[in-house]
Amino acid sequence: MSESNLYQDFSELDDEVKQEFYSDVKDCVRDINDCLPLLSSEDAQVLINRLFRSIHTIKGNCNMVFLEPFVQTTHTIEELAQDIRNQQVSYSPILVRLLISGINAVDELLAKLMQQQAFEAQVLAKVESLFTHVRSVDPGRQLEEAMRAEQAINDGHFSLNLVAVSQFEGEAFSIFDATDMEFFHYLSECQHVVDDLHETRMKVLLDLTQSLNLMLPEPEDQDQLLAAVYVYEFFRVVKGKDADQTRRRVFSAGSMLARIPGWTRASELVFQSNEKFDGSGFPRQLAGDAIAAGAKIIALADHFITQALEHQELGYKKSLFQAVKSINQLADIDYSQDLINVFNQIIKRDYLTKLQW
């Protein structure tokens, strides 16, 4: 059936009937959007019941005026609300925001139809597909997929392939619209696909690099340091023997950052990360104070968490001591004694009494 035939019965209705229909829909849409500020204060069951009733009313009204494609899409949105209402799916503000975004997308298309404007009918099918996807995924992935679906709807491209979710910040963002830092963060999180310990590794890397940086006489710019950590972590994907792998990782991460305007310092931190205090490192054999302190922070934190996780089977305390020992053995070789002294202070303060992995 052609698109024009799909809406022929609706177009033949009296204008007064159509206006009354859309006025009722707008009342429901307003009620649905009024739920957004109540996410943190309203009783969950009361809120989801309110949403369900309004969504159900919109679906019923569309059915009364022969808008079958809108009925189908709204029904799919309603099914997710029903799942939450019946406690088949755990309530979450993330899912509520998705419901609201879905209804707003339907409303935008209805508004165009009322104004006799052309619109992409397949958008309805895309919205329906997003909700079908969210309902079908494993419970452990449902909230992440809901965030991606909401972002895809709000961005207007309706494609999950263009949306990523930050595991650490719990936010979704469109890859094409991402800031540089969001993109770097996204790259680093690609590692969780191949590394079950990625989340733990990144938590320690970020905490330790930032703690060390704050104790430097002249701290590095935080954004430059974070960008260096994120991109350096992403390029752990490179393969090869230990020394060759490290070189390729440094050159790949540093070169990528160097090609993006504004990240020259982050690039330099990566390039200097494998220089050694005694001058035996690479690529320039820098020594002593000629090496940026921020670069050695990155290397030290990466070395520390790698050693700790490699010995994780020994238990927390033993793996911690093994990692600390491996760092201290490199005083005045890889790292300055001053940096190691600061590192030891942080270990005593933050790692001895609290499990970090």
Protein architecture, described:
- By secondary structure, this protein is mainly α.
- The chain folds into two domains: 3-174, Four Helix Bundle (Hemerythrin (Met), subunit A); 187-351, Hypothetical protein af1432 (Orthogonal Bundle), CATH 1.10.3210.
- It has 16 helices and two strands.
- It has helices at 3-6, 8-11, 15-33, 44-64, 68-85, 93-114, 122-136, 139-155, 180-189, 198-214, 222-234, 242-258, 264-272, 293-310, 316-328, 337-351; strands at residues 163-166, 171-174.
- It has a two-stranded antiparallel ribbon.
- Helix 3 packs antiparallel against helix 4, helix 4 (44-64) runs antiparallel to helix 5 (68-85) and helix 14 (293-310) runs antiparallel to helix 15 (316-328).
- The radius of gyration is 27 Å and the shape is elongated.
- The mean pLDDT is 92.
Task: Compose a concise summary of this entry.
The protein has 357 residues and is mainly alpha-helical. It is built from 16 helices and two strands. The chain has two domains: 3-174, Four Helix Bundle (Hemerythrin (Met), subunit A); 187-351, Orthogonal Bundle (Hypothetical protein af1432), CATH 1.10.3210.10.
List the helices and strands and how they pair.
Elements: H1 3-6, H2 8-11, H3 15-33, H4 44-64, H5 68-85, H6 93-114, H7 122-136, H8 139-155, E1 163-166, E2 171-174, H9 180-189, H10 198-214, H11 222-234, H12 242-258, H13 264-272, H14 293-310, H15 316-328, H16 337-351
Antiparallel strand pairs: 1-2
